[in-house]
Amino acid sequence: MKIIDTEIAEVKILEPDVYGDHRGYFFESFSQREFEEKVFKTEFVQDNESKSRFGVLRGLHFQKAPYAQSKLVRVVQGSVLDVAVDIRKGSPTFGKYVAAELNDENKRQMFVPRGFAHGFVVLSETVVFQYKCDNYYAPQSEAGIAWDDAALGIDWKIPAAEILLSEKDRNNPLLSEADVLFDYSINLYE
Prior knowledge:
The chain has helices at about 30-40, 165-170, and strands at about 1-5, 10-15, 20, 25, 45-55, 55-65, 70-75, 80-85, 90, 95-105, 110, 115-120, 125-135, 140-145, 180-185. By secondary structure, the protein is mainly beta. Strands 1-2-11-7-13-5 form a 6-stranded antiparallel β-sheet, with no helix packed on it. A 5-stranded antiparallel β-sheet has the order 10-8-12-6-14, with no helix packed on it. Strands 3-4 form a two-stranded antiparallel sheet. The radius of gyration is 16 Å and the shape is globular.
């Protein structure tokens, strides 16, 4: 597995070794041992999957401490623009983001650490999106920031008029107005 560094040191892109022949292909999508050796030492406890259609934007989501989550995200079918935003106050990259196209052809994955908001927009007709979390879902801890916050300047690759949002995501605050973020000086993994 190849690990690709991004503009934010903690966010990583993982590119698997894919073995193909006349029958199809095979690749190892996850190895706890290799992940800990090459990316980060954490234990994933929950797998999630969603299916969405073109233009659906899910995000930018996170769970507040003490239920913060790291995510390892990937596309099984289709294509998305996947985004991780640093929301750790005091971080040298606070308010910056990493965006990468994840699809069923490149088979890339993105590691989104705790202290980051995460979201994606569907670029294909439909998408099947899977992700691993290192903390359980806690509905009382759900939070988000606005996907279209001008201060973030995210280019979602499709016109805003074609974006489809949940009611909850329509009402997320701007980063500057969010009252529950993370403190860069606090280790979110203890």
